[in-house]
Amino acid sequence: MDAAVVVLGVAVAALGASVGSFLGVVIARVPQGESIGGRSRCVCGEPIQARDNLPIAGWLLRRGRARCCGAPIPAWYLGIEIAGALVAVGIYVLILLVL
User: What is the Cα–Cα distance from 91 to 86, expressed in whole angstroms?
Assistant: First the structure.
């Protein structure tokens, strides 16, 4: 397997996880009547720092807890980010098989 295919696959997974992260924001905010714009924030209202806002890695590194107040971050956020990555990689693999 060519290294470029693997590197592109990792990039596709990161993009898919980012889309999943955005979907998590939509799922959490829209039913509450909140805007989907603006910075990510903790349940306590504090903005989430950029280093903690990395899809999948941020949740794992913080062990599912907010840095600012220690509040638990629901595991479904992690799940939807992983699902986004898997869907994106799945589509990427299907495209590779067709080409």
Answer: 9
